[in-house]
Design goal:
Length: 220
């Protein structure tokens, strides 16, 4: 118990000694630099034979059968290409439940591409060549991206409305309108993730032709 108390008392002094200020940006950077490893897969390939994990700023492919890994790509260039949104300051109802889940790395259904989300923008990486293309470049973050089951489109939420983007043409289509802080299309309120452990608020149909989504009215 004494050791625990001493640790708590020392912690503020340690923080004061840091030269780099603690901001949202530095916290995000620290998270990205945290090494994961084969025990922490970021995304399994659709055939279940390999998975991606993050190590520093690298995405690495691991093969459990051979216990071997190979680098896919260093994400630094993509991270730098993302358009960082300017902070709008505190907004009503902007507290996000800790159980909200988004997937920053996803394999396409054919296993040939990987969708990567960084800084609110979306990128597509070709696995064989490690070449990438930027799908979105907007000051508003593209949240909760999901590849369609056929791998031809990616859906996402921007602010509180849903959009879908055709990957080949990069043509973007807005699916919902009227989204606001109090009318959320495809975005969760506090109750659903907290009480029902729901991590997302929209889903692709298996044939990639439709999307089901929740609409939450928080005005009352």
């Amino acid at each position: 118990m004494r050791a625990a108390v001493l640790f708590i008392l020392c912690t503020p002094a340690c923080l004061l000694a840091q030269k780099k200020p603690i901001t949202l940006e530095t916290l995000d950077e620290a998270t990205r630099l945290t090494a994961e490893g084969p025990g922490n897969p970021a995304a399994w390939a659709p055939d279940g034979k390999r998975f991606l994990y993050r190590q520093g700023r690298r995405l690495v492919i691991y093969d459990p059968a051979t216990r071997s890994s190979k680098d896919l790509i260093d994400t630094s260039e993509m991270d730098s290409a993302a358009v960082r949104a300017a902070s709008a300051g505190p907004q009503p109802f902007d507290w996000e439940n800790r159980r909200v889940r988004e997937t920053p790395v996803q394999w396409s259904s054919n296993g040939g591409e990987v969708l990567y989300s960084a800084g609110g923008d979306l990128f597509m990486i070709t696995v064989d060549s490690a070449k990438w293309t930027q799908l979105t470049r907007t000051p508003a973050a593209e949240r909760d991206p999901k590849l369609s089951p056929d791998g031809k489109s990616v859906a996402f939420r921007r602010n509180w409305d849903l959009y879908v983007l055709d990957i080949a043409s990069k043509r973007e289509t807005r699916l919902t309108t009227g989204g606001s802080d109090t009318l959320r299309n495809g975005g969760l309120d506090w109750v659903y993730p907290e009480e029902l452990d729901l991590g997302t608020a929209y889903w692709w149909s298996p044939d990639s032709k439709s999307i089901a989504y929740l609409q939450s009215d928080l005005s009352h």
